[in-house]
Amino acid sequence: MAKHSPKKHEPKQAQKQVTKVDKTAVTVSHQRTEPVKIFVFLIFFALSMVLYGSTIYNGYSMDDELVTLDNKNVELGLTGIPKIFSSRYSVNEKQNYEYRPIALVTFAIEYEYFGRNPAPSHFFNILIYAITCFLIYLSVKKIFPDLHWAHAFFTALIFLAMPVHSEVVASLKNRDEMLALIFALLGLMMFLKLVDKNKLVYILPGMLFMLLSFLSKKSSYP
Question: Most buried residue among 79, 80, 108, 114 by CB atoms closer than 10 A?
């Protein structure tokens, strides 16, 4: 009997297998060289302090009375949190609008332990900004797993250093912007895990984080 000649498509299959192995090897190599996450966060926090540490000495600025200065619910401290969730964002003689309880809750907690003192609030704004940049780093790594971790690091670093963000960090009233982005990124990562691991357990935390984002500020809707 005549011998069967090898199939023509086998070399292509072998080439595909080698390509897959190479991609896996590259991903593993990236993971090995990646620094510890807490170290990356500390870098972002240190740089945030370098850029915005001077704001700790600032007082209250324009529109801060909407969220902390002379806000009756916030000045009740922890006992005012239920009223914050059942009230509008800004209620006074001139205006009554929006519903953003999450930022107000953070100010109520600060008022409980620090009283009417803008310095701790400005410090926490810097800390929240560092957390925002760190979550951007994690999100970019999650979306582009084949890229070296340095791509995500420098993306977050550019975001951190952009001068256009100075108002958000320096103004206490604008904390709602950072909180909305933080919870939106956390929700995004939960839904990405849902797709990657195909486990429905990630739906609930993803929806919860997105709800917290919406309750921080409506700008997260889009």
Answer: 108
Decide which of 146 and 8 is more confident.
Answer: 146
Instruction: Give, rounded to a whole angstrom, the gap between the first and last alpha carbons of the chain.
Output: 69
Q: What share of the chain is helix, strand, coil (3-state, %, to 5)?
A: 75, 0, 25
Specify the pTM.
0.83
Confidence of residue 212 (pLDDT cuts 50, 70, 90): very high
146 backbone dihedrals φ, ψ, rounded to 5°:
-80, -15
* Contact indicator for 85, 202 with CB cutoff of 8 Å: no
> Six-digit token pair at 168?
């958000």
Residue 29 tokens, joined: 């190599």
Compute the chain's Rg from CA coordinates. Answer: 24
As a whole number, mean pLDDT of residues 116-126 equals 95
